[in-house]
Amino acid sequence: MKHELNPENWVDLYSDYLFNYTISRVNESEIAKDLVQETFLAGLGALKNFKGEAHERTWLIAILKRKIIDYYRKINSNKGKAEVRIQFNSGDDNEGEWLETNVADPFDKTAEDEFENQELGAAIYSCLAKLNTKQAEAFKMKTILGMETEDICNDLNITTSNFWVLIHRARTAMAECLEKHWF
Amino acid sequence: MKKGFLFISCEEAKHICDKAQYGEATIWEKFELKLRLSWCHITRSYAKKNQKLSEVLKKSNLKGMSLKDRESLKLTIQQELKKQH
């Protein structure tokens, strides 16, 4: 099956997922936002190269990973330096040659935790995508962004009781969806 | 004593249960909810699922972008797409 790209929907479908992926790696919200934006722009620049073999989210994640590595290379911070391992090559022909091997995993997590959290994050975002826009927005603002109820009501232009109705419907749908796909 | 003084409907109980997940239920509401939970299995079942959902969401430690940031990002993408066409 050939996959297609729909850049018009990228922000709605993937911005939170990509942001969440990035923030756990760079720990700074502003940098994470910039990297997500750079990823989308790089994706737009590479639309013609997309062969349709991967799902667009997988394709965007691959771009984002490169962006994160580039970011660490660029800042060349102490943390960045510590992540580059230098290996002495003992081969006769290359005596004295120092090689940068690879950028180590910069995240202090086990691979298992990382994998489980990524899978869980993907399941949650996939369930969120099934909610209607207003329910999803209210749920995200309250549960993921941790915003105050009053601020959410102002931003979405709804009353407090409407807000709790949206939250109730969203939570019920999320629990059902995650029950099928995660619990 | 009015019936509604201590007795809350199942829907009201679920509503309080939702608020409690975000620490926004009052002490009185929590008391009413507890009372309802003591005898209503439907409310108990909802509360259990709701609690489980909160635990999973907490475990996932999800972060997201604000509505404003996403709107701004959308605009940037639209402008870039226009340039390409």
TrEMBL record, chain A:
Alphabetized InterPro entries for the sequence: RNA_pol_sigma-70-like (IPR039425), RNA_pol_sigma-70_dom (IPR014284), RNA_pol_sigma70_r2 (IPR007627), RNA_pol_sigma70_r4_t2 (IPR013249), RNA_pol_sigma_r2 (IPR013325), RNA_pol_sigma_r3/r4-like (IPR013324), WH-like_DNA-bd_sf (IPR036388)
Please give the start and end residues of each transmembrane region. none
Please give the Gene Ontology molecular function terms for this protein.
DNA binding; sigma factor activity
Query: What keywords are assigned to this protein?
Result: DNA-binding, Sigma factor, Transcription, Transcription regulation
Domain (RNA polymerase sigma-70 region): residue spans on this chain = 12-74
Q: Can you supply a Gene Ontology BP term from the record? A: DNA-templated transcription initiation
Which residues does the UniProt record annotate as the domain RNA polymerase sigma factor 70 region 4 type?
Answer: 123-174
Q: Mind telling me which Pfam families this protein's record contains?
A: Sigma70_r2, Sigma70_r4_2
Which top-rank group of organisms is this from? Answer: Bacteria
Give the family from UniProt: Belongs to the sigma-70 factor family. ECF subfamily.
* NCBIfam families linked: sigma70-ECF
What name does the UniProt record give this protein? Sigma-70 family RNA polymerase sigma factor
- According to its UniProt entry, this protein's organism is Paucihalobacter ruber
From TrEMBL, chain B:
**Domain of life where this protein originates:** Bacteria
Tell me what this protein is called.
Glycine dehydrogenase
